[in-house]
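Re: [help] complex structure
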Amino acid sequence: MSKAFLGKLVLNWCDKCHTPVLGKKCFCGEETRSVSITPPGDIRPAFKADIDHINDLYLKQFGEKLVPEGHIVILNKIPDVDRMEEVIMGGAVVCAYRYIPSEKRWELLPRVHAAKYSKPKYKYIVADDGAVEPIKKGSSLLAPGLVDIEESVKADDEVFILSKSGECIAVGRSRVSAKEAKEMDRGPVAKTRKTKPDVCVPGEASWEKAVGANTNILNNAESEAVNFVKSVVSKNPGLQCNVSYSGGKDSLATLLIVLKAIGKVPVLFSDTELEFPETYKNVEEVVEKYGLDIVRTGAGETFWEDFEVEGPPAVDVRWCCKVCKLLPVKRIIEEKWGECLSFIGQRKYESLARMKSPRVWRNYKVQVQLSAAPIQHWTALHVFLYLFREKAPYNILYKRRIDRIGCFMCPSSDLATFEIIKAEYPDLWKMWEEKLYYWMNKQGLSEDWVKNAEWRKRGGEDDTSSYT
Ligand SMILES: [Zn+2]
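Output below.
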């Protein structure tokens, strides 16, 4: 992924304010340092539910919580089989966690800096003095260098490697169990993970403070986006403007920018009828708060009629976007305005396909809609800092570990998200599962097709021709 990466990583850290800064200079006057994260780096704040989840995982694996009260945490989604997140604290990656679909469980992978926040009670190995330097340089811990190994360590566990004085010198995976390790006189006990030579400076901070530290950066990002909106509008006189609103954070930030640039415009809400209840609530709240007209469009029963013929949509057969979004939107634009200019919350950091997308475009299936993306260059962290600053009513799903707002059963979601939805919205999920079983029986498919979510992919190329 990094090879094809076209954007630049923007995460910096102020060690005086203990906050992320999306540029070289903090508002306090300090120079910042860059934080090494995995591209594309669509960084975002961790909410309380995310932090609780991290602490639960850490407690389960290492016997302690990781994140102390009063510290801010940033997440960065990185490529893996399903869902994997880097966790950034004190300006460094302190751990990662991932969902393992085959075992239906989460696993936490610590980095050396995690020990700055929390000393492990379980799953640690103590190395002899002579082994410390080679291990710091990346060597495995070999049996002769072993001083102690915590008794619950099993083969293939994530482990901390400590010096005799208790300093964390490496993290890695054990090759053998504690019992086996104690009986060995040669061979590797644990394989270490490469450690980046970066720094981690823990310190308390709040999101209000982070907003303040980014004052100039947010002002600049806002005025660039506002000027972009004004310029697109002036180049396309006579086109009715609107904001395509989905109930997600990106379209909310886009709406705020457009309101500042050109004043009130209608919001275009394309209701797939497969949205979360919170999303409908958010749409109502936003329309009311900003006093806007709403233009609603939807597919009605078309989704379920097409389901009868096509089966569930899949990442490589996304008939749903066309049926539920593109065509209803096209219809309503033709009916109401003939043609229009829609501002859309598309951002390049969302995906590689989005990296390559122009900032103003027409979808070939909806030629009557000229689309423009004011926040194209923002990361999710820009968006949230901006929404925090503006005290904007963002969708509360973000606080429930659902960071992708849209149809609840979108085949592009990861299985980790489906597990969260299953737990939080059992009725919604049961309804969908009944539909899947219906199609499974109709087509004579195996039960794995439902149980392992094989319905999400038919085996072709991913269809990226989505709405935005
Ligand atoms: Zn600062």
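The longest strand covers residues 92-100.
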